[in-house]
Amino acid sequence: MANLLGYKDRWKEDKWCICGDFNVVRTMEGKKGEDGSFLATRVEMYEFNYFIDTMMLFEAPTVGCQFTWFQSNGRTCSKLDRFLLSSEWIHRDQNYA
Fold it and tell me: Which of 9, 12, 55, 77 is at a distance of 20 to 30 A from 64, taking alpha carbons?
């Protein structure tokens, strides 16, 4: 994520669409079935949210399932996959590809 922050500073392009499995949740509500007191989880959440705020991105809402990853035993699930968009991407010219 630090590399993307560096690109944002160098590039003048404001249209960003970043998607994928980020392997981190944004809030404890994005995780079910695990103890939420782990310090590493809270640090990762803070860093991920800091990245999103610094890049001035918005998370595209999802439709359907609340979680995108499920442990094979079915007891643990998390929302890890997401689309992050800049306002310029959301309001881009319709001819922009």
Answer: 55
- Cα separation, 52 vs 23, in Å, equals 14
**Residues 19-62 pLDDT 10s:** 998 888 888 778 877 654 455 578 888 999 999 999 999 999 88
18 strand-pairing partners: 84
CA–CA separation, 93 and 95 (whole Å): 5
Per DSSP, the residues of 36-91 read TT-HHHHHHHHHHHHHHHHTTEEEPPP-S-S-SEE-TTSS-EE--EEEEEEHHHHT
